[in-house]
Each structure stands twice: as structure tokens, then as C-alpha cells.
Design brief:
Oligomer: single chain
Number of strands: 2
Largest sheet: 2 strands, antiparallel
Strand content: 5-15%
Strand order of the largest sheet: 1-2
Radius of gyration: 12 Å
Structural class: mainly alpha
Length: 74
């Protein structure tokens, strides 16, 4: 079966705790290393979820980035 959501690879946000950390200068995922969280998210959406990239300035992307940042370890 194919991957169909972020939750497939990251159940309950697991594995994203470091992604939301303040002060990050780059992010790495199976697609490579990226300079911002928006690009990192879109690579996962395209490669793993087989979906369409989100506009980096869209409310959906802002919501996704906010969610990931909320997972950062305090």
C-alpha cells in the first residue's frame, strides 16, 4: 500500500520534534537538505505522500509549519 498522509511516516508527529526547533538553518529529509521548513514539507508531500506541493505562502503551509513548530521539545 502507498503512503497517503504525513501520519503514515510520522504518527502523532513522531520524528518531527527537531524539525520545529528554533534557530534551525537547514532541514534534512530523504529528498535532501533544504534551507527552509516550507521546502522540506513540500518535498515530503511530493515524494512520500504523492501529493501536490503547497504554496509556501498559503494558509495550509502556515498551519503545517505552526504544527511542526509546536512539536519542538521544550
Amino acid at each position: 500500500p502507498g503512503v497517503n498522509s504525513c501520519n503514515t511516516c510520522h504518527p502523532d508527529g513522531k520524528g518531527l520534534e527537531k524539525a520545529g526547533a528554533k534557530g534551525r538553518k537547514d532541514w534534512t529529509n530523504p529528498g535532501g537538505t533544504w534551507l527552509n521548513l516550507e521546502d522540506t514539507n513540500n518535498v515530503c508531500i511530493i515524494m512520500a505522500v504523492k501529493g501536490k506541493a503547497l504554496n509556501p505562502h498559503s494558509q495550509e503551509m502556515k498551519d503545517l509549519v505552526a504544527y511542526i513548530k509546536s512539536l519542538a521539545k521544550k
